[in-house]
Specification:
Helix 1 (3-16) packs antiparallel against helix 10 (359-373). The chain is globular. It has a seven-stranded antiparallel sheet with strand order 10-16-15-14-13-12-11. Strands 1-9-8-4-3-2 form a six-stranded antiparallel sheet, with no helix packed on it. Strands 5-6-7 form a three-stranded antiparallel sheet, with no helix packed on it. The protein is built from ten helices and 16 strands. The mean pLDDT is 96. Helix content is 27%, strand content 25%. A hairpin with a 4-residue loop joins strand 14 (275-279) and strand 15. The protein is an alpha+beta fold. It has two domains: 3-23 and 169-373, Naphthalene 1,2-dioxygenase Alpha Subunit, Chain A, domain 1, CATH 3.90.380; 50-159, Rieske [2Fe-2S] iron-sulphur domain (Rieske Iron-sulfur Protein), CATH 2.102.10.10.
């Protein structure tokens, strides 16, 4: 471990590892130091489950998409027998990245080595004179991959415990939503230029509602009555009750069995390290982050709803409205996230004291220090 990382961890523990009422945030170096980011990639992103997509994006055998996790180029593929796999997207010949062209076999664009959907090398043109060349030794490596509630998650190190077991009782709470059957009803993409934790922090507190969302959120979901629920697993929950305990007005038709709380407010969750979902009575909004560097990531906001929920007149108009509203909310959050990123570079920046409304940030940062401490 670099000496600087050791110092940062000690400084971080002093700031964070105390009761919430006495705690501060992680110090700015956790958002700006290349040593910390390298440790996050190696010990947090690689060793935990990272959500990469929805199983419904690759419904047929041979369907696939590309994504990077912790700098590792992956090809997420639906295999012949229906299983979803996370294969390395790096050709075993001379490291060309494999693309998503075609739907059958996977063919490298450089010299056309061709792989089956399970990663085995099927053909390598003009290799007859390479002595001892064994196709069996040239399969694409594969990584641990799980589908949970319709989300595809990847664990690069292969030693994370199965996700479903780690997420009780969250998994039980989410059952009535039947997320595995949900469809993508909209998708919005942004290139973001700030540290990934700036978005996690923003997503997991409603303290800023009155300042940043005075017309969109605050009138219905006031900052002051939001609260964080402690969890025993690797996730945090933030509850946002509706003002005066009123019923919310969902766009679509909520499924039967949605609990009373969800009809009078909504919840957001962070499944660590950074799977951010907002669970509303009639839909789920997922902020997928593809982290490309210490201060940049691609954000894809997925809007998900069950087909039985969207079976309403004017569904297309409502989907459009959901997309516009979600976009507008993120456009409100964006200047705050960018402002924080700028402020973090200042010589005056230091760990900041937390409000009692920021328990989910405190829980996440406590968890993160634990993970980095394993380095
Ligand atoms: S690099 Fe893939 S076939 Fe040559
Ligand atoms: Fe916000």
């Amino acid at each position: 471990m670099p000496a600087s990382l050791q110092n940062y961890l000690e400084e971080g523990r002093r700031a964070v590892m105390r009761p919430l009422a006495e705690a501060s945030t992680l110090p700015p170096a956790f958002y700006t130091s290349p040593d910390v980011f390298a440790a996050e990639e190696a010990h947090v992103f690689r060793r935990n489950w990272v959500a990469v997509g929805r199983a419904s994006e690759i419904p047929e055998a041979g369907n696939r998409f590309r994504i990077d996790v912790a700098g590792e180029p992956l090809l997420i593929v639906r295999g012949k027998e229906g299983a979803v796999r996370a294969l390395s997207a790096v050709c075993r010949h001379r490291w060309m990245l494999l693309g998503t062209d075609g739907t059958g076999t996977i063919s490298c664009p450089y010299h056309k080595w061709t792989y089956a959907l399970d990663g085995s090398l099927m053909a390598a043109p003009l290799m007859e004179q390479a002595e001892g060349f064994d196709r069996a030794e040239c399969a694409l490596p594969s990584f641990a991959c799980e589908v949970w509630n319709g989300f595809i998650l990847v664990n690069l190190s292969g030693d994370a415990a199965p996700l479903a077991g780690q997420l009780q009782p969250l998994a039980a709470e989410l059952e009535p939503w039947k997320m595995d059957e949900m469809e993508i009803v909209g998708r919005i993409e942004f290139d973001q230029a700030y540290n990934w934790k700036v978005l996690v922090d923003n997503f997991m507190e409603a303290y800023h509602h009155f300042a940043i969302h005075p017309e969109t959120f605050e009138p219905n979901y006031p900052a002051a009555i939001s609260y964080c629920e402690p969890s025993n697993g690797p996730y945090a929950a933030l509850r946002m009750p509706h003002k005066d305990n009123e019923l919310s007005h969902p766009l679509f038709k909520p499924l039967g069995g949605i609990p009373e709380f969800a009809q009078r407010g909504f919840s957001v969750f962070n499944i660590y390290p950074f799977m951010l979902i907002a669970v509303l009575a009639d839909s789920v909004i997922w902020y997928r982050m593809e982290i490309a560097g210490i201060d940049r990531f691609k954000l894809t906001i997925y809007l998900l709803a069950h087909p039985a929920s969207t079976d309403v007149p004017d569904a297309e108009t409502l989907k459009h409205f959901l997309r516009e509203a979600t976009f507008a909310v993120h456009m409100e959050d964006l200047p705050a996230c960018e402002g924080v990123q700028r402020g973090l570079q200042s010589g005056t920046a230091r760990a900041g004291r937390l409000s009692h409304l920021e328990g989910a940030i405190h829980a996440h940062q406590t968890w993160l220090l634990g993970e980095l401490g394993r380095a």
